[in-house]
Amino acid sequence: MAKFRLDEVDHQILDMLIDNTRVPFTDIAKKLLISAGTVHVRVKKMEDAGIIKGSSLTIDYKKLGYSFIAYVGIFLQNTSQTKFVLERINLLPYVTVAHVTTGKFNIFCKIRAKDTEHAKDIIFMLDDIDGVYRTETMISLEESLNDKKRLMHDIFREM
Amino acid sequence: MAKFRLDEVDHQILDMLIDNTRVPFTDIAKKLLISAGTVHVRVKKMEDAGIIKGSSLTIDYKKLGYSFIAYVGIFLQNTSQTKFVLERINLLPYVTVAHVTTGKFNIFCKIRAKDTEHAKDIIFMLDDIDGVYRTETMISLEESLNDKKRLMHDIFREM
DNA sequence: GGTGAAAGCACCGAGTT
DNA sequence: AACTCGGTGCTTTCACC
């Protein structure tokens, strides 16, 4: 995978858009003392390069009744079944992300549910997939998301 | 936390905006056969209710040279140190999310790094936090994100 | 690669049904 | 609650630097 170099202006633009994709390009332009046209061209360039893959809303799932988060580690009967099981897992809507991992588990995923009862159903569905030997669940008591803005500044500025 | 009820139109609007926050309200209106003003009012309502917390870009971190993902389970010397350690963890920019969990680990977090060398540095920083007894790392060999669109449709439509 | 202005639209609030 | 409509302001393009 090619590594793409961004300059300081690109970083500043990303910083602002990452916090709010709807911030007007004219505002960005004012802050960075460049023209709105330039902002537009640079954003387009980052989109074309695939650095900006898309945009999405941040939804408050708790307000929608989904306040249960857990991580589930999956042990397979045989690692050759990894691909098959991963495909099945991705058919389950309540699994938000799945990873093939080294270490203790073969597959590791995050689930989002309404409550413990609902989570139980999801975990049973995972257990029922062919090739899954057993699962181990870690319930999240508190989620703490890192601040995106700081992430961008500190991580990517150094490149 | 109060549970907020969304109707079919709200769901359709969210579905479109979740795929692309910059899709014009006029396009949404055309597709749903309502007026752009109505789209505007409904989005505003969801923002005011806090359902829509914000918006963000999806960045291709791999293209920026950050292709390493791992999960780190943390064992504390004493659970009373949870809050303190969590605060320290959140100061580390490469930790994208941290959870207080039940089960095997006390705290559980996800890190994003350039490579194994870089990951090692981050894990050492975690190990060095006062109160951390030891850590256990699971390296992600493959990440598989669930499709957002399907998530919204299948999960929230039923409420 | 950047600018600035102009044309084309989108947003958004007010007033109406 | 939803619609129309008009003012305001944003995006996007393009000729020029």
Automatic annotation (TrEMBL), chains A, B:
GO BP terms in the entry: regulation of DNA-templated transcription; response to amino acid
GO molecular function, one term: sequence-specific DNA binding
Keywords: DNA-binding, Transcription, Transcription regulation
Every HTH asnC-type domain range: 6-67
A Pfam family reported for this protein in Swiss-Prot or TrEMBL: AsnC_trans_reg
CDD domains per UniProt: HTH_ARSR
Any GO CC annotation of this UniProt entry: cytosol
Descriptive protein name: Winged helix-turn-helix transcriptional regulator
Organism: Bizionia saleffrena
